[in-house]
Amino acid sequence: MWLFRKSPNLNNASARPVCDDDLTKVSRLLRDGGRHYYGLTGDELPSLLEAGHGAALNVGEDLLGVALASYPVKGTCWLRGFALAENVDLHAGLDHLIPVLHTHLADGGVRDIYYAGDEAAESWLVPALHDYGYMFATEVVVYEKCDLSIPDFGNPDLQVRMCASADIAEVMRLDHACFEPQWTKDDTVLGPAIVQGPLFLLAEIAGVAVGYAYATSHFGGRLVHLVRIAVDPSQQGRQIGVGLLAAVITLGANQGATTITLNTQAYNTHAQRLYRWFGFTPTGERQRILRRCL
Q: Is residue 192 located within the same domain as residue 112?
């Protein structure tokens, strides 16, 4: 590979869709590349490569760059990984990778691709993506609650229990009903979360699933992060979200948590009113979301 050599001549480079045979080289490039952004979770990489959800840049047998996208959901997907070998010019690499990635995604029915990124990639990848038509879409804002008091326990008819693998169909139904396509999760994310997550709750009224909440635990249980909370749109106004928040805080406190955090979109003012009323306050942390219409 080109990781520690002089700048390669990209006049001889070619870009193509990724494949499962790229696993070893892509893994190394995402780890050791001169520039790299890795936003994948779990075992996503092998399946994305097998499905061809990305573009690879080669000179002969050498892999110089890669751009990876998530599985499409209702015509949307996310840029999940990007890497260039040492000494590969950023814009020259993107000039090869981005058109192939966009064409491949558009041919597969994708209309919009999103990027959230991380702090390490913010300084170099975001400005470059702007040059290729990625525009500001929204911000994700962070809230926290250090006082674990509970102002209300919500609907008295609500039953909240730990979610089981057999509930995946109901969880998927709720997720797709509650979130815009770019924010939905598929069963490859939610399925393992139900089995492995420390706190995955299902809310029911009269045996019918009306909402769910998923939280992770960090720093020996002292911090609980609310990853997802969803209430069936047809059940809005019945204090189901209140009941789920109360259950998350109760279980977190029982496990020794002292702080609960969550993220939400800046435009989701309805949810933010609930969080503020429940005692959550903004931390000031914000993450930009970019969007590219294909």
A: no
